């Protein structure tokens, strides 16, 4: 029998939190246990959580440990979400559950979301990490955020327990939501972002703390994940088409170069580096639809 543990880190989410909770309350297959971790909120989040927990039998509220982020600092850059997630996880017996999920406090799920995902896991034993599609507001309408098919956004990830244990959980560092799925594929699990079901993301990706800061954070993440400079340079041209146009690409490239100059800690596992380089080469070949073309190794290595 499937049993689902859902964890939601929340910090200053009063604007979106009730919508998220109402959507989980309305699930045709609710989680068996839902832990919401209040990560030092300074707005109305604690009061909201107290009220909503009283009417949601499977919801428990936890507090995250104090963390040292300077005023105006970037909590995402120090992986505060991952720290809060692991703090909640440490307080439960993972063996009591068959699946563990992370849901951001600004995501609105459709009623059958969790049931649909669990059914997909049941039908595909090799599936290790999965998630639906995130819709984000763009020019007044809800549009699907484009991501590689094997990348599951950190805002709504679901793991099989076997996969989660095989990869050693999630790392408390920037880029955790790409590192985890890379190791999952290295361990023989499939990772997949599904076209259905769709969920609404009420705070667009890379906008917490400012859009340009978010773009720079993604560039920093690319360095930590060992993406090659020339791949990042080309990627910055694509990012430049996002709002604000031009500046987004520059911010992305700046974040990468700043991390390189600072010699920030990267994933040092050599097998991981080789695996990432091969996947990037495969992506370039698929994008150009010309498999016989040899992609230079220096293009991907970092």
Outline the fold blueprint.
Blueprint: E1 4-10, H1 17-25, E2 33-38, H2 45-54, E3 59-63, H3 80-89, E4 99-103, E5 107-108, H4 113-123, E6 127-138, E7 141-144, E8 156-160, H5 161-166, H6 176-186, E9 190-201, H7 211-224, H8 229-239, H9 247-262, H10 270-288, H11 297-300
Parallel strand pairs: 1-2, 1-4, 2-3, 6-9
Antiparallel strand pairs: 4-8, 5-9, 6-7, 6-8
Features:
alpha/beta, single chain, Spore Coat Polysaccharide Biosynthesis Protein SpsA, Chain A
Helix count from the secondary structure assignment:
11
The largest β sheet comes out as: 9 strands, mixed
Gap between N and C termini: 44 Å
Would you tell me the overall average pLDDT? 89
Integer-rounded radius of gyration: 19 Å
Global shape: globular
Work out the number of β strands.
Answer: 9
CATH structural class of the largest domain: Alpha Beta
Give the name of the CATH superfamily of the largest domain: Spore Coat Polysaccharide Biosynthesis Protein SpsA, Chain A
- Which class of secondary structure composition applies to the elements? alpha/beta
CATH fold group of the largest domain: Spore Coat Polysaccharide Biosynthesis Protein SpsA, Chain A
């Amino acid at each position: 029998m499937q049993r689902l543990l859902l964890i939601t880190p929340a910090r200053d989410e009063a604007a979106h939190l009730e919508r998220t909770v109402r959507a989980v309350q309305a699930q045709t297959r609710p989680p068996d246990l839902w832990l919401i971790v209040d990560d030092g909120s300074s707005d109305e989040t604690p009061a909201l959580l107290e009220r909503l927990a009283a009417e949601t039998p499977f919801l428990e509220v936890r507090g995250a440990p104090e963390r040292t982020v300077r005023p105006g600092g970037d909590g995402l850059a120090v992986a505060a979400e991952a720290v809060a997630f692991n703090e909640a996880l440490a307080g439960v017996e993972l063996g009591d559950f068959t699946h563990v999920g992370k849901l951001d406090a600004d995501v609105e799920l459709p009623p059958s979301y969790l049931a649909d995902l669990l059914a997909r896991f049941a039908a595909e034993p090799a599936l290790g990490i999965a998630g639906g599609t995130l819709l984000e507001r763009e020019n007044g309408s809800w549009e699907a955020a484009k991501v590689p098919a094997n990348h599951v956004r950190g805002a709504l990830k679901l793991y099989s327990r076997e996969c989660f244990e095989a990869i050693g959980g999630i790392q408390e560092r920037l880029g955790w939501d790409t590192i985890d799925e890379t190791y999952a594929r290295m361990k023989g699990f499939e990772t997949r972002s599904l076209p259905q079901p769709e969920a609404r993301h009420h705070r667009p990706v890379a906008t917490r703390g400012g859009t340009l800061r978010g773009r720079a954070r993604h560039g920093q993440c690319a360095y930590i994940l060992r993406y090659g400079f020339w791949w990042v340079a080309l990627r910055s041209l694509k990012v430049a088409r996002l709002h604000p146009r031009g500046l987004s690409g520059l911010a992305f490239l700046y974040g990468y170069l700043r991390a390189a100059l600072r010699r920030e800690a990267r994933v040092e596992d050599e097998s991981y580096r080789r695996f990432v380089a091969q996947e990037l080469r495969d992506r370039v070949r698929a994008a150009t639809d010309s498999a016989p073309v040899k992609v230079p190794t220096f293009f991907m290595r970092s």
